[in-house]
Amino acid sequence: MSTTHPYLAMDLLRFTTAGSVDDGKSTLIGRLLYDSKAIFEDTLENLQNVTRQRGEETLNLSLLTDGLRAEREQGITIDVAYRYFATPKRKFIIADTPGHIQYTRNMVTGASTANLAVILIDARKGVIEQTCRHSFIASLLGLPHVIVAVNKMDLVDWSEDRFNEIVAQFAEFASRLDIPDIKFIPLSALHGDNVVDKSIRMPWYQGGTLLYTLETTYIGSDHNHVDARFPIQTVIRPNTDLHHDFRGFAGRVAGGVFKPGDEIVSLPSGQVAQIKSIRGPSGEISEAFAPMSVVMTLDREIDSSRGNLFAKRHNQPNVAQDLEAMICWFDSSDLKPRGRYLIRHTSRETQCSIKDVRYKVDINTLHKQVDNPSIGMNDIARVHLRTAEPLMIDRYKQNRTTGSFILVDPFTHATVAAGMIVTPNMSAEANGDEEPAT
User: Fold this and answer.
1) Strands 12-18 and 91-96
2) Of 397, 409, 434, nearest to 354 (Cα)?
3) Per-position b or e across 148-169, b if 16+ CB within 10 A of its CB
4) What CA–CA distance (Å, rounded) separates 24 from 21?
5) Interval 247-306: pLDDT, tens
6) What CATH superfamily is the domain 6-216?
7) What CATH number has the domain spanning 229-312?
8) pLDDT in the model for residue 62
9) Can you give the pTM of this predicted structure?
10) CATH number attached to the domain at 318-423
11) In the chain, what are the domain boundaries?
């Protein structure tokens, strides 16, 4: 049996960028790609031509993303722009999200699968409302790593005192959030200081550059490797002469580690079996862990299909129909109290109704608004949901896959909200359950 995991050789970091308008986010992304030699020659040549046509003397790196921004302004649906690049140490996917307040939902989309957030702060302006908004969303979505990039240091004369002042401002606000790893980097995206290359104009800063920090941030422990979860996406039955009796369960591991010989329980039925084999893209493997996509075979026939979930017999998720969740509302139409929607959770889909809006969050102050039940686009609120069929769920803080869901309008099929499960029971507040807002 082969024990080679293609995933072990691939180190991929997904990160999202967030900042207020004119914080220099486009220039920073452009500088990161340019200085790390990640721009194709034809793209670079086109960028040079456009820069000359605009009458600018230096290469305008922000133009690398301006085309996508123009498409957004024209109303074309591009929620998040993804950029891909690699260095000898790591592969990267950048989720480039708009900075405008009306695009909060776009940041939620981009950050939902990220390991890390880069939050830009204009050194002249310091911590502003959008900084607090983006930081709260990063905390709400459970991003374990945040890099605070204090940009435009050239416009404050490379001042160490100004940098320390902003660090203190952000640290005071972030003390109320749940972000375990925060790093601060002073930089100038325009001139390239501390982006890829170390700045000679800020010798007082002894930390790593932005690229070095991105390359060395440890994400191996970000996935939950304790609680085994395997949502079934499809059942594979080739029905060929060669594989006449083959029956495999395909999906992506959402947590824990699975090995041949392990005893699993299929939920919600509760049937028990042992794993006979696990197959990856290159054949049989000795174990599977998040976020690997695999096919499992069992030692006996059990009634399991898409929407079911495998777990370890003595470590099971909650099977519930009532749950408390934080949601970010995406739709232009307001949330309908007691409205009915489709809920998509892992590979399972069922109907649900919103029984109650607990409160709305003022994400600039983190205060709860209990007397304001109206939930519109970009609002974040805590709600009580009831589903038509049981879901196999964990708290979002425990598992970002089994603890998240989306709500879909059953008539338009538009995604109207993204949700993070706080708890599957109604007594959470009485039991002192943690809440994202104060």
Assistant:
1) parallel
2) 409
3) bbbbbbbebebeeebbebbbee
4) 8
5) 899 999 999 999 999 999 999 999 999 999 999 998 999 999 998 999 999 999 998 999
6) P-loop containing nucleotide triphosphate hydrolases (3.40.50.300)
7) 2.40.30.10
8) 63
9) 0.82
10) 2.40.30.10
11) 6-216, 229-312, 318-423
